[in-house]
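Box 3.1 A note on notation
Throughout this textbook, protein chains are presented in two layers. The first layer is the amino acid sequence; the second is a token string describing backbone geometry. Keep the layers aligned when reading.
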Amino acid sequence: MKKSNLLLLIDVLMFLFLALMAGLGLMIKYVLVPGSKRWVIYGRNVDLTFLGMDRHGWGTVHLICAIFFVALLVLHIILHWKTLVAYVCKIVKTKTEANILIITFGFLLFFLIIFPFMIDLKVTELGDGRDRFLHGTEQQHIPAAARRGQNISSDTAIEPSEAVIEKPEKGSQDLEHHDIDPDIEVFGSMSIINVSIRYNVPVSHILRELDLPSTISGNEQLGKLRRTYGFKMSDIELIIHDYRRK
């Protein structure tokens, strides 16, 4: 392949990946919205997916696209190195200074890519997503049937006026989400086998505790099963937590 054709192909791919990243970012931000916004928009706790993946799954696709884009950008710079040096030489005095300037700029770009792994996070306990949505000391809860894994029609929204105000009973055996081990995170894009391998909990135990048919494939995505059987991701997190304590 001629160098000119290769350069054109790289440029076209870079533009495609850039447009795809922008589109995925908009979809994750404004379409596959996080839990708190789902309560506002749909009036109930729903699972939003596109092509079988939730916002976390598409976030992974976005990351992969970004990696390919950066790889193409590096290749683009390498193939245009002489042109870049010649252009920068018009600004600085020597070719050596031009090389140093370009390399320094490259390190700056590299730092901007890896800086998320160097930041110092501030972790603040917020409780579960429903608590964050309501912003109150007293919590509005959906009926117990929904919290205990029973199937409720997805087109029946819980209006604020219909919600039941409850306070946790003293000595209750139910755990709030913030009492569950912080390393336990279950997403709709994961399968039962993914959860089983990651947290060392048998598939059969998860199915039994969720009261799901034993014939269900372990490769089924949790988001799809959730829409069918009405359990929550926090139910699975609690199952993992309880299994660890045995």
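Confidence is low (pLDDT under 50) at residues 126-178. Residues 3-30 form the longest helix (28 residues).
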